[in-house]
Amino acid sequence: MKSTSFSVGLTIVLAAAMFSATTFAQQPQQDEVRGAPAEPTDAAEVRAQIAIVEKLLPTYPDRGAALYFLAEAKQHLGETLEALKLLRECLSLREGFDPSGDREFAGLHNSKEFTDLVEKVHQDFPVVAQARLNLVTEEKNLIPEGLAWDPNRKVFYLSSLAQKKIVQITPDSHVSDFVPANRDHLLPVLGIRLDPRDFTVWANTEDDLGAAELVHFDAAGTLLGRFSLDDSAKHGFNDLVIRQSGEIILTDSLDNKVFRFDPAKKSFTELKVHRELLYPNGIALASDDKSLFVADALGIIRVDLQSLVTADVNPGPRSTLAEADGLYWYNGSLIAVQNGIGSPRIAAFKLSGDGLRVTRTTVLENRTNFTSLPTTGAIRGSDFYFISNSHIDNLNAGKILDPTQLEPVRIAVVHLP
Questions:
Q1: Which 3 state secondary structure label does DSSP give 89?
Q2: Eight-class DSSP state of 16
Q3: Strand pairing partners for 191?
Q4: Residues linked to residue 258 through DSSP beta bridges, in sequence order
Q5: In this model, does residue 287 exceed pLDDT 60?
Q6: Residue-wise over 200-220: b if at least 16 C-beta within 10 A, else e?
Q7: What dihedral do alpha carbons 408, 380, 245, 329 form, nearest 10°?
Q8: Does residue 19 register a pLDDT over 90?
Q9: What is the pLDDT of residue 38?
Q10: Domains of the chain by start residue, with CATH
Q11: Using one digit for the tens of pLDDT, what is the confidence trace for 73-126?
Q12: What gap in Å lies between CA 193 and CA 370, rounded to an integer?
């Protein structure tokens, strides 16, 4: 729901976001002052986030993620020498970051130092091509964000940012509207999940002005309810999970918070965590209904929903949990769409029994046509289906920038280990 390069991130937060957070929109530059280029208009916000990450850096379990965040931030501010220094240290850890696919570093592509760093990354993390094309939509202008599988009706639900609707797709690629555009006056639709108790559909919606709603539909696509926070803050509802009790837990990528929604009381409460979140995005619930995993720009936090104790999941050496746009639980592993670590990838992270550390990292898809700009996915049986070409970087303020660049939406599938 959000890519996490500073150049396209906020567009994705507002369009989705989500999306792999560390994100800022490309900000217009002011006129040069006394021969020096002015700072971007979001400089104060970026510097505040730099301070947060620098404070975390000495003890944070994923040093590479913090360094990459800082490198992007420094480059965004025009501090290229410092950005390269941070990037050099980050990539020496060999965690999987690949700046060649990061728009924030586009101006460095002619630098020998940069190209040498990228060459080493590609040696350490070669192409992984295991996915295959499975579904295709005829509509090119959806700009899809969320995907969910309904085992009862045997259809996929695909949310649309640009058209503000939800479509349904059969396994043979027949596409029809589940919630038509304009009928319910929806905001752009992001994360979408199926309630396994009654097969109703919940989805997050939000616009680029900070308005956000959680919406609920029955199995026929009829609107059952819409819910929002009654406060003055700007919100960017992104992804969500549904507990066995019916409670909804969702990420808010603009307010940098996680909220619990009680459908009986129709009320939101904040779920506190132990550190400041930076663009919370993907979210997953373990099969025991007790362990929650929340992804942000720096990694993944485990929440014990009984004790409410929270902790960062340790990715282990040569691995990173940063920037998971889509996040899913599968047989003791987290499946992640990491689209903010430079070049996007799909990866599986096997967890220890307590869910606090990664014991094995498996890259499922890397540097192929199916990872041009993936966002989220859905698990069906032992297969992971994911949106491979969201075109979310072609959306700004709810408008498609260049319709000629759009293609049919491709949903790829990869078998899970």
A1: helix
A2: T
A3: none
A4: 251
A5: yes
A6: bbbbbbbbbeeebbbbbbeee
A7: -100
A8: no
A9: 76
A10: 9-128 (1.25.40), 129-415 (2.120.10.30)
A11: 999 999 999 999 999 999 999 999 999 999 999 999 999 999 999 999 999 999
A12: 23
